[in-house]
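Task card 7
Instruction: Convert sequence to C-alpha cells.
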Amino acid sequence: MLRIFALALMLTGAASFVAPAAAQDYPTKSVKIIVPFGVGGPADVYARVVGQHLSESLKQSFVVEPRPGAGSVIGTTEAAKAAPDGYTLLMMSNTHTTNETLITNKPFQLMRDFVPVSPVNYSDLLMVIHPSVPAKNLKEFIALAKSKPGQLNYASSGPGTPYHMAGELFKSMTGTDIVHVPHKASGDARSSILGGHVQMMFDAVTTMAPNAQSGKVVALGTTFSKRSSVLPDVPTIAEAGVPGYEAVIWIGLMAPAGTPKPIVDKLNAEIRKVLSREDIKAEWAKQGATPMMMTPEEFDRYLRTDIDKWAKVIKSANIKVQ
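Output:
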C-alpha cells in the first residue's frame, strides 16, 4: 500500500509539471483565430491587428480565418469542436452574449463550450440612413418611420449581432415598426445601405465613419453615452431624441473549453501587452475603438453579466429571430 501511495504521489507531481511546461513552450506551431463574422468588420480587422502582434512576440503565426454566417453560429460551432490545446481561438463579440438567449437551438453554449481568454476593445455604433431617405435628423426619421409602419428596412450582419440588437432596441424605445433585413456578414449589410437597398443601418463607427464623412450615408446619431471623438459633430441618439438609448460593440477572444489554464494565462498576458502599447491606443482612438483589459476571471464575470443583461432586454422587448 505504501508503494502504491508513493507511486500515486509521484504521478500527481509529474502531472503538475505538464501544464506549465506546455505553456512555457507554447506555441510550437501556428495558431488559428476563427472569426465568425465577415471580412472587413471590426472582429476581422482587430483579430488581424492582435494576431500580427502575437505572431511577433510569440514567434509563431497567428492566422485569421473568417467563417461568417448564421449570426456567428457557423464559425463558433467550428471553434467549439476544435481541440482544446491553444491552437484554435475564437474572436467573439456581444453577438455571442445576446445569442445565448436569442438562439436557443444552436449546437453550443458559450460558457460551457469555451473559456474566456481576453477582451480586446469596444466602440460606438453609428446610426446611418441612405441619402435618398427624406429625413435630415433623427426626429424626422422617427416621424417618417411612424408614418410608414413596416415600410422601411434596416440591415444587420445577422441575428443577435450588435447591429441587430441596436436596431431592435431603437424600435422598442421609439415605438417604430422597421423591418429587420439580416445579412450573412457586415460587409454585405454595409453594401446594402450604401446601395440604397435598405433605408437604415447601425454599424460600428470604426467602419462606417468614412462613409458618413464622404456623404455616402447620412449620420443620425452615435450610440454611446457620450459623443464619438471620430465624429464629434454627430449627436448621440440619446441627445438627438431617444433619451436613455445606449449600445456598443465589443470583441474578445475565447478558447475551446479544456484549454490548459497556463496557456490561457499566457495568451492573456501577451494580449494585455499589445493593448497597453501607446501606439495601439493612439491608433485605435483615431478609429473610435477603446482597448479593454481584464484577466480571464474578470472577463468571465463580464460575459456572464452581459448574457444576463441582454436576456432581460430580449425578453422584455419580445425580440425574435426572423
